[in-house]
Design brief:
This protein is of the alpha/beta class. It has eleven helices and 13 strands. The strands form three sheets. A six-stranded mixed beta sheet has the order 2-1-3-12-4-13, with helices on both faces.
Length: 297
């Protein structure tokens, strides 16, 4: 066979391979992965950049990371067809499922190999003058984000169960993230506020947590961890392949620093497991109890 013929055949084969990759991955081989700002971008970027690469390697597509500026920004991105994958907080997921056709397919595993859970709490600091949850009434209070499960929904529920209007019974501020809420409490910028178990674990990892700095006034029952969700209108074959990859990741393949970060954020097994939309029905029930209009978040 002549050299020109060999080269032509090779070019044809490579072209066919590229065309196959483009056809099995959307956006000419690019899959976009959104992450909510539950941590500062400085902490999230290196870890999730590596996670995006791991997903891309398993999927055979390039995965681009998008760290949202707010919970709603991520939901809007998926609603507008700009994300194929999103990690949402439980409340954000319920809204994303409703308006952006997000479909939970996976989550992070706990030490028992089952879907992990975490908790929300309401805390103050020792010399704030607040001794019980009832004393929070009329005081400054930090939520993280209106669309946050542990940063808004559950603390609001905790206040409401104790006769405090979560909107008008406290001087509420929205710090923007769990880290910002934590820092507001730590620096006594607010008298009370939300603090979830993931933020505590992360602060411990970075040597920034001392339990003596906080007094816990209320704690929630276990909450299902963030789902990894896909956009429901993706091609069926690709969506199935994507769900399979997302629900069977071994995070031990990530760099050691990433593993420490993820393990501290309620992911001790460092694996993902399948998850379903029904797991978040308890969140929907709380939305009803609190008369939350998701469309206004």
């Amino acid at each position: 066979m002549k050299a020109t013929t060999i080269l032509a055949s090779l070019a044809l084969a490579l072209g066919a391979s590229a065309a196959h990759a483009a056809s099995t991955c959307p956006n000419n081989g690019v899959v976009r992965f959104g992450v909510e700002p539950y941590e500062s971008a400085q902490r999230l970027l290196p870890v999730y950049s590596d996670l995006a690469k791991l997903i891309g390697d398993k999927l055979g597509c390039k995965v681009e990371l998008f760290v949202a500026t707010s919970y709603n920004a991520e939901i809007e991105a998926m609603r507008n067809g700009k994300l194929e994958i999103g990690e949402f907080g439980p409340l954000g997921y319920v809204l994303a499922h409703q308006v952006a056709h997000a479909e939970a397919v996976a989550t992070f595993a706990g030490a028992d190999g089952k879907p992990a859970t975490y908790t929300a709490s309401i805390v103050t600091w020792p010399s704030s003058g607040i001794k019980t949850l009832a004393d929070v009434k009329g005081r400054s209070f930090a939520y993280s984000d209106p669309s946050s499960t542990s940063g808004h929904l559950f603390p609001a529920y905790g206040l409401g169960k104790h006769g405090i209007d979560p909107d008008h019974g406290v001087k509420a501020i929205y710090a923007g993230s769990h880290t910002a809420s934590y820092e507001a409490l730590l620096n006594h910028k607010v008298e009370s506020g939300e603090l979830n178990s993931e933020e505590i674990a992360s602060a411990k990892l970075h040597g920034q947590y001392d339990p003596k700095n906080f007094v816990t006034l209320w704690q929630s029952a276990p909450i299902p961890l963030d789902p990894l969700a896909v956009r429901a209108d993706l091609p069926a074959d690709f969506k199935a392949r994507l769900a399979s990859v997302l629900s069977s990741l071994d995070l031990h393949e990530l760099p050691e620093a990433d593993q420490k970060f993820l393990a501290a954020n309620e992911n001790p097994a460092l694996k993902t497991v399948p998850q379903t939309d029904a797991a978040y029905n308890q969140i929907r029930d709380l939305v009803k109890v609190l008369h939350i209009d998701l469309a206004k978040l």
